[in-house]
Amino acid sequence: MTRFEDLPYRPCVGVMVLNRDGLAFVGRRTEGPEHVDDVHAWQMPQGGVDPGEDPWPAALRELWEETSIRSVEKLGEIEEWLAYDIPRDIVGQAWKGRYRGQTQKWYALRFTGDESEINIAAPGGGAHDPEFADWRWEPIENLPGLIIPFKRPVYERVVAEFAKLIR
User: Fold this and answer.
1) Which of 51, 95, 115, 142 has the most C-beta neighbours closer than 10 Å?
2) Which helix (H) or strand (E) holds 135?
3) Ramachandran quadrant class, 22 (left: phi over 0; alpha: psi -120 to 50; beta: rest)
4) Does this model's pTM top 0.85?
5) In this predicted model, which residue has the larger pLDDT, 95 or 22?
6) By the 8 A CB rule, do 12 and 48 touch?
7) Cβ of 49: how many Cβ atoms within 10 Å?
8) Alpha-carbon span 59 to 64, nearest angstrom
9) How far apart are the first and last CA of the chain?
10) What is the mean pLDDT of residues 157-162?
């Protein structure tokens, strides 16, 4: 068995989608071994980068696959990748035990469409299983308190970096 410290990080992208009022999209996850209670089950859209895929197209793909959102404009990105470790006791449950956590490339996007475009029940035109059971717009300063605690430092950094984009 591979030691935890020797496991790689899973490449991932994350997106902070901001509406016209400067509120961020968050969804309540439907499942996952890392979600231990209802308060900390909320997160921004994120997902894995496929082999050979560039992060920016991956971010747009993941957003579409999780929310059906396509009407966005890019506001910014965090240049470096942000990493977190998952708790050792769930390593075997998350990603089949192949990763110790994720390294994420984060983007800020402005939602330019109508809310009727958002479809978490049949995301990606119905081609993908729902990952969110509910969604809402949330002030960005609340985001770190909604995420599972081991992801909180990443969310704190994302909020700090993207706060300047709120008009």
Assistant:
1) 95
2) strand 132-139
3) left
4) yes
5) 22
6) yes
7) 21
8) 9
9) 50
10) 98
Residue 65 is which amino acid? E
Residue bearing tokens 């309540």: 28
Enter the tokens of residue 139. Answer: 């002030």
Cα(4)–Cα(51) distance, rounded to whole angstroms? 22
**pLDDT by residue (tens digit) across 102-156?**
999 999 999 999 999 999 999 998 888 999 999 999 999 999 999 989 999 999 9
Element (H, E) at 62: helix 55-67
What is the amino acid identity at position 33?
P
Q: Residue 69: which region, alpha, beta or left (left: phi > 0; alpha: psi -120 to 50)?
A: beta
121 burial (CB, 10 Å; 0-12 / 13-18 / 19+) is exposed
